[in-house]
Amino acid sequence: MTRRSAVIHGFMVQVFRRFFNRHMNALRVAQWGVPETEAGGPVIVYSNHPAWWDAALYILAADRFFPNHESYAPIDAAMLKQYGIFGRIGAFGVDLDSPRGAAHFLAASAEILSRQDRALWITAQGRFGDVRERPLGLKPGLAHAVDLAPDCTILPLAIEYAFWLERGAEACIAFGPPMRGADLARLPRAERLRHLEERLTTTLNRLSADVMSREPDRFRLVLEGRSGVGGFYDAWRRLASAARGRRFDSSHEGRAT
Predict the structure, then answer these.
(1) Contact present, 50 and 171 (Cβ < 8 Å)
(2) Can you tell me the distance from the alpha carbon of 249 to that of 257, in angstroms, rounded to the nearest whole number?
(3) What is each CA distance from 27 to 36, 57, 198, in whole angstroms?
(4) Taking the model in full, what pTM does it have?
(5) Confidence band (pLDDT; 50, 70, 90) for 94?
(6) Which of 21, 27, 241, 251 qualifies as a cystine partner to 225, CB 3.0-4.6 A?
């Protein structure tokens, strides 16, 4: 079981927030994709897995949308050995390519979901995959996890990254409608997995339409990073704004003249 520390977790949330602000332009959640403030009972959030940034998004989204839940997530066992601090913020190592690893995932998940104030975040594809990939090919472990906590709430989470006007990327997310574990547990596991995949695919398709629009008003701003290019280019624009008595706007659309 993970050696999660509330103190270290709180510190790392701040570290990841600063890191995100320095390297990305914004974290946005679709207006229609904001989850219920606090779901009752344990929560399972499952998502696609488009990029390395997903781990940071999990930490930031959990802190923003589920602050009263302790959040946990499986990661590659070899990676956990290399980055041991992740074990202190809720990560537990698994090898999902082996039967023993799958059994360990289910055992750890059962312990996590045994408490009402915990959330399990799963990159359900089990590998990196392009956001346009269809079918998503979710791992069967997700369907098995539902049996561990019939009283849980299950939420699909769509993740997509895009470059709009600024140097940094836009990290866009959307939660789909919640599902009750007891309802899914009544379905055969194969049908259950298909249903979970369909829900996530629908959420991804809807989010992609908003991302393609490049309309910020379709989203709520969760975090805002640094805009502008920086260096000599922004320094010159700042001087030009000051010379004209105008406030400097570092964004790409900002006016310095």
Answers:
(1) no
(2) 11
(3) 18, 8, 25
(4) 0.85
(5) confident
(6) 21
